[in-house]
């Protein structure tokens, strides 16, 4: 397999690696396992995450977006999991590699549909990394979120999440108990750091 495409945006590259390594290590028997996204199993979270990454690429390039609605994943894969995921990560990374660090307006597939470059890259990263966490905890893997990544993601989250909560993209925030950076991020996104199936 060829080397992954690097976007040059550290937060996005770290998030893509988190999702890539988590999906690669899902045991065969766990693709139907429940996840913290209560309506979706592991396969559906993968489909959603892959579709979202392709959506971020399409917003920048004007190229094709996902064939299926990422918010209504079927739960049936037409190819091996990494064959589903990797092209979407590559497309997203390649698109973000064209964006200068000082760009003030980058098209994105979430309201307000244009963000400054750092926040936009952070939004794409947030989607990838948090769904990596969902898949990891659903399949008995260690959390792929590092404190450094969680801190960067929380900065991006605070720029984009509130307008999306009414649409169900994120649950209501959970009161943070003053724990670590990863717990602070998960609480803000309405996720329980101690979630169990």
Describe this structure in words.
The relative contact order is 0.18. The chain has helices spanning 10-24, 42-61, 81-96, 117-138, 147-164, 181-188; strands at 106-107, 114-115. The chain is globular and about 40 Å long. Helix 2 packs parallel to helix 3 (81-96). The chain has a single domain (10-149), classed as Four Helix Bundle (Hemerythrin (Met), subunit A), CATH 1.20.120. It contains 6 helices and 2 strands. It is an all-alpha fold and 197 residues long. A two-stranded antiparallel sheet has the order 1-2. A hairpin with a 6-residue loop joins strand 1 (106-107) and strand 2. Residues 12-136 form the Mycothiol-dependent maleylpyruvate isomerase metal-binding domain. Pfam families: MDMPI_N. This is TIGR03086 family protein. It comes from Actinomadura rubrisoli.
The first-to-last residue Cα distance is: 33 Å
Largest sheet: 2 strands, antiparallel
Write the CATH architecture name: Up-down Bundle
Using DSSP, what is the number of strands? Answer: 2
The CATH H-level homologous superfamily: dinb family like domain
- The tally of structural domains comes to 1
**Class from secondary-structure proportions:** mainly alpha
Low-pLDDT runs: none
In the sheet with the most strands, the strands line up as: 1-2
What's the alpha carbon Rg, rounded to whole Å? Answer: 15 Å
Question: How many alpha or pi helices?
Answer: 6
Instruction: Please tell me the overall pLDDT.
Output: 95
């Amino acid at each position: 397999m060829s080397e992954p495409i690097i976007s040059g945006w550290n937060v996005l590259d770290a998030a893509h690696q988190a999702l890539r390594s988590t999906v690669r290590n899902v045991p065969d028997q766990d693709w139907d396992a429940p996840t913290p996204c209560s309506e979706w199993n592991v396969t559906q979270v993968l489909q959603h995450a892959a579709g979202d990454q392709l959506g971020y690429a399409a917003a920048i390039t004007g190229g094709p977006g996902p064939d299926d609605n990422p918010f209504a994943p079927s739960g049936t894969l037409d190819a091996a999991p990494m064959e589903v995921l990797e092209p979407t990560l590559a497309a997203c990374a390649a698109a973000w590699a064209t964006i200068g660090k000082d760009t003030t307006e980058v098209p994105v597939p979430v309201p307000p549909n244009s963000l400054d470059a750092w926040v936009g890259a952070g939004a794409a990263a947030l989607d990838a990394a948090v769904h990596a966490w969902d898949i990891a905890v659903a399949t008995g893997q260690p959390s792929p979120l590092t404190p450094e990544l969680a801190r960067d993601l929380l900065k991006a989250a605070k720029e984009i999440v509130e307008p999306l909560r009414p649409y169900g993209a994120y649950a209501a925030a959970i009161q943070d108990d003053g724990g670590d950076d990863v717990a602070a991020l998960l609480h803000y996104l309405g996720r329980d750091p101690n979630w169990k199936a």
